[in-house]
């Protein structure tokens, strides 16, 4: 189980980063709250 | 919700040795994913209880997809956002589904769809994209791209609405789905007017 822990976390981090990049290219997040955008994702 | 997302993001990134900026990116994405899932679950449960699941889901998708390119007003906190999102989508779902109980509901629905859509198109044309203090949009190239996506989305919604209305001559439910879609587009365009930077 421990062997799969890090690859699983890596996949989770990749999915989150992909969604973050997709949201950064949009006007805002999908619903009514906009958190501070990370500097590396800003225009 | 933000505190939970921060803790989850740390749990994911710390064992991987990510720096603070990489953690912020993961946290930003995770926030979006959790927001979509939570609102989706609440809307599904509400739709099942009130028997207007399809209308609620059409509203949920229509608002989310259009909002991605037009932007709009934002709540001050994530919990406020959750309440507003669920309340608005639920109300639109209920109004659309139970329009049939109102005298002349069908005629009202048929008249409402094009009217709301035309007003929404006008507002989107005038205002989109609306940025916020936390996510300013300065690049003219990005503004142009978001405006084009907004109009493509509106054209797609118009085609879907026409299809729903065409279906409604055989199955009445189609009209209420079209009303749900157009009310959602109208609400989203109103948020462009009430957005404060």
Number of strands of chain A: 0
> Which overall shape of chain A is indicated by the principal axes computed on the Cα atoms?
elongated
Say what oligomer this is.
heterodimer
**Helical amount among residues of chain B, as a percent range?**
over 70%
| Protein chains sharing the most extensive interface | A-B, 33 and 54 residues
Number of strands of chain B: 0
Largest sheet of chain A: none
Strand content of chain B: under 5%
- Unreliable residue stretches of chain B: none
Shape of chain B: globular
Helical coverage of chain A, percent range: 40-55%
Number of helices of chain A: 1
Structural class of chain A: mainly alpha
Class by alpha and beta content of chain B: mainly alpha
Ends distance of chain A: 40 Å
Query: How would you state the average pLDDT of chain B, rounded?
Result: 90
Strand/helix succession of chain B: HHHHHHH
Percent strand of chain A: under 5%
Please tell me the total number of domains of chain B. Answer: 1
> How many whole angstroms does the radius of gyration of chain B measure?
19 Å
What's the number of helices of chain B? Answer: 7
What does this structure look like?
The complex is a heterodimer of chains A (43) and B (197). Chain A has one helix spanning 2-24. The longest helix of chain A is centred in the first third of the chain and has 23 residues, at 2-24. Chain A has 1 helix and no strands. In chain A, 53% of the residues lie in helices and 0% in strands. By secondary structure, chain A is mainly α. Chain B is an all-alpha fold and 197 residues long. Chain B has one domain (51-194).
